[in-house]
Amino acid sequence: MRIPAHALALACLALPAAHATGIFGGTDRFDLDRDDIRQFIVAAAASEGVAEDDLYHLLAKAEPQPKIIEAMQRPAEKVLPWWEYRKRFLTPQRVREGVAFWQQHRELLDRVAKERGVAPEYIIAILGVETYYGRITGRYRVLDALATLAFDYPPRAAYFGRELANFLLLTREEAVDPFVALGSYAGAMGAPQFMPSSYLRFAVDGNGDGRRDLFTTWDDVVASVANYFREHGWQPGGPVLIEAKARPGVDLALDPRNLALSDTLDSARAKGVEFESTLPGDTAVILIPAEGEGAPGVRIGFANFEAITRYNRSVRYAMAVHDLAQALVAATYAADQ
Question: Of 121, 130, 291, 306, which is the active-site residue?
């Protein structure tokens, strides 16, 4: 269901025209007389077909969030070795709640898996890693988060400005209330934590009600995660990851930032990596550093693993999703016996 272009204007008619009076000086609200904000409004109005006054009225209600800037500027946490990173996500509670989610939504998950070719355990694992199966979805208003980063965080202002424009479009297309919608400090929304651009591009109507609701409708959430995977190269029934090891004396010196399928099974063997696989030698793979406690390690990711990294550009994140998915399969099988 598409909301008419004038709906945003109707929703905002009662708001004061702050840009005309200059009453907000950036203390509790953004200074809408700032040149960069004026330029954003002009560009967004032209691209989205919305009156500039309506955008001024909307942004007049956005509140700067200094804590978000602090979080963005905080030095990055140390890069955890894989074994330590894994512990954060492979907890008994997360597995238990994932099993409960699978049992509660089994029919939906089976249907989506059949329609879109994505195994249920990977859909559930994404939700488990992202929001604890929809329980922890963020406490910032999306409008505030995106406006703060678009207008007060110069290093990534252009990116978040685009996301803010996409969010404004989303509020029209999917009847999302811009003054109520909550998300992460970066503006990611709903159980699957989609940014506005991803919401617009990859969210789907899973139950046929004419809306794409990633906040409260599990049919839409599950179908949208599966669609995201398929749109990013997920191969139905394809492998995700296999265990491997380096031959004694071999130093692989793998780069954890490498997310490309830049090796093959044959080239991996030539580099001294040992593993079991019946797949063709020219199968494209990623060689993944997977540090054990006190020892180096290596795993091999396939195209479906690379698809998971498109959700979050980190091999450790993708490994956590994979390992949680496998833990859910084992625990759900045990619970069903």
Answer: 130
